[in-house]
Design brief:
The protein is an alpha/beta fold. It is 35% helix and 14% strand. A hairpin with a 2-residue loop joins strand 1 and strand 2. Helix 2 packs across helix 7.
Length: 348
């Protein structure tokens, strides 16, 4: 699963003229690993697919930004375009810490062995990159895509899929993924969020109380709640039986996430009502937390897989509501979201 900017990077890099063309695959493999196939914040926001920290030698082709990485905050490179990123990567290597890499450039694995221990502290870093070489070669058109099975096909047997209606509003399941449309074009749903909508960047998994039926919740969203001042709900509702209802057209955004910073956690903070798809397991909330039925678990995973595939959403961008907000039960959606995010790790 690759983000759109990463797909563009692949296309441009495939045709790019570089000093050592035989190193294209190994460098792309590094970028696959470092950026999570384009899903990292540095990649999304700053076109830095290699996790490169800022160095003065790159000051004419990038700017310095402060960024919270997995190992703490630091200053990293922010690139204005993909060509600058590619140039920056090779210039980054032409610095004293990597001295000698050009002597190894004739052999991609020797090159990798030379720089891996300097680039990352992880002793398995070189092996992880080497494990992505076949994928990188396929993406660059160097190897035949039939050489290895589809990672996604292995992750979800049967490969659930969906297509969108011509107007992009309705998700239509394919090959056994059945979705019943119950949206209403005339409903304002998340009025402000829809007015300010952005392309979908992630999925948030929720649960609703067993107090009401699935159909009741779908209608509640359409009717609105005057006491709360709007229309609240989700794009998709998965009933305890596993039946999937689309409760809002994908042209609309729904009110499902709090805009209040005091209740939002740092994880998934880039997701707001303007850019997130909401899926709920209806009637799955209990006193102990998130308790979906086995049918709901299966269907949510199938639906999330199909949506990520159709809309270029990384698996890493699927979160449980309880992971994102301090005022929700911490288990809400968490177990399923963690399973789905793990696909990205397995795919890596």
């Amino acid at each position: 699963m690759y983000t759109k900017p990463f797909k563009t990077l692949i296309a441009q890099y495939s045709d790019a003229v570089i000093e050592f063309p035989n190193l294209k695959a190994v460098s792309l493999a590094m970028w696959l690993l470092e950026s999570g196939r384009g899903a990292s914040g540095l990649a999304r926001d700053h076109l830095n697919f290699a996790g490169m920290k800022y160095r003065p030698e790159l000051s004419d082709i990038c700017t310095r930004v402060r960024y919270q990485a997995h190992d703490g905050q630091g200053y990293y490179c922010a690139f204005p375009d993909l060509d600058s990123f590619v140039a920056g990567y090779w210039r980054f290597l032409d610095r004293p810490p990597y001295l000698g890499w050009r002597d190894k450039a004739g052999d991609d694995l020797a090159f990798l062995a030379h720089i891996a221990g300097i680039w990352a502290q992880d002793p398995q870093y070189g092996d992880k990159v080497a494990g992505l070489l076949t994928e990188a070669r396929i993406l660059l058109g160097i190897a035949d895509s039939t050489a290895v099975p589809s990672c996604q096909a292995m992750l979800m047997p049967g490969r659930p899929r969906l297509s969108l209606s011509d107007d992009g509003k309705i998700a239509q399941g394919i090959d056994g993924l059945d979705i019943l449309y119950r949206g209403d074009d005339s409903c304002p749903y998340g009025k402000t969020a829809t007015r300010n909508r952005r392309p979908f960047e992630g999925i948030v998994l929720h649960h609703t109380s067993p107090k009401h039926s699935t159909q009741w919740y779908v209608q509640y969203q359409i009717d609105g709640d005057p006491a709360r001042g709007g229309h609240f709900g989700y794009h998709f509702y998965v009933a305890p039986s596993g039946v999937i209802y689309q409760g809002a057209p994908l042209s609309k955004r729904t009110n499902q996430l709090s805009p209040k910073p005091q209740v939002r956690r740092q994880i998934g903070a880039f997701l707001q009502n303007v850019n997130a798809i909401g899926i709920t397991c209806a009637q799955a909330a209990t006193d102990s937390g998130f308790s979906p039925t086995p049918s709901q678990e299966t269907q949510v995973k199938s639906l999330a897989f199909a949506l990520c595939d159709a809309l270029d959403i990384p698996f890493a961008h699927v979160f449980g509501h309880g992971e994102l907000q301090t005022n929700r039960h911490q288990s809400e959606g968490r177990s399923l979201a963690q399973d789905i995010r793990a696909w990205g790790a397995a795919d890596a």
